[in-house]
């Protein structure tokens, strides 16, 4: 039978917007020693500002932003939301077809008769689009039409209000290692990692590489305690599944990620993770 204290723990957590999907996860949460965090949407805000629109090859800024908004119309990635917010008008997605969203790359779709690509350097290389790699501060979304480079949009990735404090609370709770994992560029990752004071970070990762990074942590901490992964649920369901405790933020996340997760945070605040660990430990103390 399950000791009564566990129900108190799960109920108490639920009252604070932390859904723990079973008593065993209170145990794994209580002994977390290492945590890997996804960056975009998890440690940084879901919707951020477009700070530059740089057209090439005859496009105007307005045309480039409109193109980006139309091709990103069907995506729930934070980048897509940012672009749509910057566009600020209802998006006409009626001509959008043959849509493919490629995790950690971007989007490939047809807009009317034109083939459009929107994504990072990796997507441009993959599709052999000739462009100059620009070294700008921010997350860059390149655009191409019918294999011709038409410019890029820069998005400023900002850390969430409680993120720095959240990292400190985890350290105070005895978490030995905090790692940040991202599909975004090295430059952006380095700046955010420094702001947050995480112990390590890895950038330009494909979803499978995030799984490998968590497996390395699992090995390293196998004798010391458990390993958690926290993601916003966009492109990270596999890594949520792989960690001892998979934590999903409920706000943006896909149904698949929320279903896979062991713990779901109803508010997308990273500080909820330390709170979850503390509740789990208190429950432990009562049960034992
Ligand atoms: P993170 O690991 O930081 O949460 P993702 O793995 O979701 O980020 O995405 C990694 C990178 O892939 C983004 O920084 C972006 O360059 C590119 N990307 C992903 N989805 C999109 C999209 N919808 N539009 C444009 N670029 C995208
Ligand atoms: Mg993400």
TrEMBL record:
It is found in: Cell membrane. It comes from the Bacteria. Belongs to the cation transport ATPase (P-type) (TC 3.A.3) family. Type IB subfamily. This is Cadmium-translocating P-type ATPase. It comes from Stenomitos frigidus ULC18. The chain holds residues 402 to 689 of 736 of the full protein.
